[in-house]
Amino acid sequence: MIVPLSEVGFEALIDQRRQSLRRVADGGHRIIGCVYPSFPVELFLAHKLLPSVLWADPSVPSAFEGSLQTFCCGFARNLFSQRSDNLLEPLSALFFPGNRCDSLQNLGDIWRFRFPEDKVLRLNYPSSKKSEAAIKYLAEELQLLSRAIEGFFGHPFSQKEFSRAVGLTAQFRASTQFIAAARLLQPQVLPYGEYAELICQFLTTPTPESLTQLEDTVATIRQALDETQQITTTEALGYALLHQDFDDFTSSPNTSSPRIAVIGGMVDPAAFAALFYKAASETAPNAEIVVDLLSFSFRTVFAHPPRLQGNPFEEIAKSLLSHFTEPTQEGLSERLIFLEKILAKFAIDGLIICEQSFCDPDGFEAPATTSIAEKAGIPTTRLYLDAEFSDRARLESKIQSFLETLTMR
Question: pTM for the full model?
Fold first, then answer.
């Protein structure tokens, strides 16, 4: 059972995720730790491995480590520090992305060198997602990954387990897409922090038990929306967001509370929610995050599930390439157009841009993002933060000042 964010501190939520992971490990599951949110979950489940996203731990300072170059991002440093201090839960293997960013590429290489006893797997992604060549390349890389998994563990790819995995992830995305659409229209249906932690919990332990909590939440929200006859509109918006095509969709939220959008890379959404609520409590307690475009939430939720027909590796490749693009991928103009539409159509009052420390992709994209908001007349603030949110007092003060400005407007 997920404890609401409003009732505990963020550190308690991290401990809650660890306890969930420990329970499934004690139940006999082989765990593969994933350092990247867009990972081939169906492939791992088809090999009888349980993939689990690795999260930054706010209690572990990511001090400079001799094996890491100075440009290694704060998120990568924190994960490496956890492993150096033997604080990671027991893992059967680790998964690193290739061709995504220098920092994660560096981390995977150094990890193999420093911890040769760890089984390390890598999937090389294409830089583009818009061509048949990219799908073919990624499908071949997925086949190589599948063979490596079978070589490590002796578990061949199972079509039966693959079918179960597709059903699980399809329902996860359908549920979270519905909640995201409902919150964009009426954020009061569920606090952002609880929505974020539902996503994080599933990414930590993608099991039927985690899915049950999501489905129960959706049922409660549907009941509330049914009373206001908003279910059809919400479903239509979810479909529009998934296909990134809502030119004909209009919405006029009836609220005077500041409506905030958040964008950025590898930022734990529940961690940010805790920071935001603390800051807002003194200046704008009714302010709410109505949409985020963070890597660990929106970019994992709004993707098409693999189909059961056809070559499974090609279907997984298509699913991975349908994820909303990362700052590490080509397609900046596409992301900016999408953001421009979000800001224009959903009464966004302010935009918070999160920049992970030492993350070049975040830093390069932030000015263009700020420019889009300025053209729309929407105030922005840029938060430069590390994976542990160590400078919380400064961050809270900056958010408070930003919300005060919005309230006066």
Answer: 0.92
**365-377: pLDDT as tens digits:** 889 999 999 999 9
Q: What is the pLDDT of residue 32?
A: 96
Q: How many CB atoms lie within 10 A of CB 236?
A: 14
Are the CB atoms for 380 and 371 separated by under 8 Å? Answer: no
State whether residue 133 is helix, strand or coil: helix
Bridge partner residues of 354 (DSSP): 264, 383
How far is the C-alpha of 362 from the C-alpha of 210, rounded, in Å? 31
Q: Hey, what amino acid is at 325? A: T
pLDDT band at residue 364 using 50, 70 and 90 as cut-offs: confident
> Which ranges of 186-311 would DSSP assign to H, the alpha helix?
192-204, 208-227, 231-242, 269-283, 298-301
User: H-helix or E-strand containing 139?
Assistant: helix 132-153
- Percent of the chain with pLDDT strictly greater than 70: 93
DSSP string, 322-388: TSPPPTTSS-HHHHHHHHHHHHHHTT--EEEEEEETT-HHHHHHHHHHHHHHHHTT--EEEEEE-TT
Instruction: Give the closest residue to 287 by CA, choosing from 156, 407, 127.
Output: 407
Provide the residue type at 246 as one letter. Answer: F
52 phi and psi angles, rounded to 5 deg: -140, 125
Bridge partners of residue 261, in order along the sequence:
291, 351
Torsion of CA 186, 192, 198, 202, to 10 degrees: 100
Summarised one tens digit per residue, pLDDT across range 30-71 is 999 999 888 999 999 999 999 999 998 888 876 555 556 666
Q: Can you read off the two tokens belonging to residue 127? A: 């830089």
What's the topology of domain 5-160? Rossmann fold (3.40.50)
Residue 49 identity: L
Q: How far apart are the first and last CA of the chain?
A: 40
Distance CA 177, CA 197 (A): 14
